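Cross-posting from the chemistry board since nobody answered there.

I work mostly on the small-molecule side, so proteins are not my area. We synthesized pyridoxal-5'-phosphate and want a rough idea of how it might sit in this target. Sequence and SMILES are below. Is it possible to get a predicted 3D structure of the two together?
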Amino acid sequence: MAQKAMRDIEITRATTTKLNDFSIEQFTFGKHYTDHMLEADYIDGEWTNVSIKPYQPISISPACSAIHYGQSIFEGIKAYRDKQSGKIRIFRPYDNYKRFNISAHRMQMPEVPEDLFIEGMRQLIALDEAWVPSVHDYSLYIRPFMFATDGYIGVKPSTTYKFLIILSPTGPYYSHPMRIFVEEKYVRAVEGGVGFAKNAGNYGAAMFPTAEAKKRGYDQVLWTDAKEHKYVQECGTMNVFFVFGNTAVTPGLESGTILEGVTRMSTIQLMKDMGVKVEERDLSIGEIKERHKAGELTEAFGTGTAATVLMIRELADNDDTLLFPEDKWKVGPAVKAKLDAIREGSAADTYNWMVEV
Ligand SMILES: *Cc1c(COP(=O)(O)O)cnc(C)c1O
């Protein structure tokens, strides 16, 4: 059964739902996908074959250029069921949309038009509406992605691409506060590189150093700059904030080595609203150590779509270990509570961050 919707998205409905075999009490994030997916092809300079269809494998050439040369980008977004109205709302999808095309541009990939990205996402979620959990702390994770599909192993930009959106229910991020290893050998991003893009290769490249840190008992690495290993960049796949009294410091974006998180932007706004001073600037490990010693540095946390805000309890740099006792945490937990409340509809959405499906 195929029917036409806006933007000529051809919709083919699944004949059964996997929801009956899915238990919100017991599931692993990232292993369960909803009944449908969106798929579109970029051919001859145009997005075409836009369809929403049953979630299914895709067929690609063994010479698929994304696999060989890495033209592959993605986004991560969440949709929530509003507590009051029961309506489904997406958190800041337009900001992810903008970032997606920034990534596409850097990776020499075509832009995805707004109606395909946003409208496609809304229609897909509307169709899989029953999968959006109504339980507190649960949401629907949205994964838009694009990759090169030419079956050609010459090194050059692909002429064809696929854009897809898949959806996966997700629950609370039970992760404990993090023990962090300050990484001063390997790097995630370098000026002039691709650190500001959400391209697949960045994550592959981070796996070895992260595994090394985990072997030593840490949860994540704190990336430092490639030139001097002196200035902090990000914490794993989260942006990072250090709180000195009533001032929060996070690395600025000028160097192009930092992924501009939507949660980072939101955190900065909410902290300003709370009367916390925010500085986006270079922050050295030396300053962190000195001011921690002086008792001025009281909190550190990472921000991202998955965990919202994740506190840091320990930072290890060579032979120094900095501890962040929980009784001093104030700003991080307040931001998390506020952000979660806005997303679930129990606090006013002053900035119109929530977009109805
Ligand atoms: C996705 C991501 C973030 C967080 O971005 P959000 O938009 O807040 O989810 C931060 N750093 C890296 C490297 C990321 O990939």
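Reply from a structural biologist on the board:
Welcome over. Reading the output above for you: The pocket of pyridoxal-5'-phosphate is lined by residues 76, 198, 234, 237-239, 259, 261-264, 303-305 (CB under 6 Å). The chain has a mean pLDDT of 95. Happy to explain the token format if needed.
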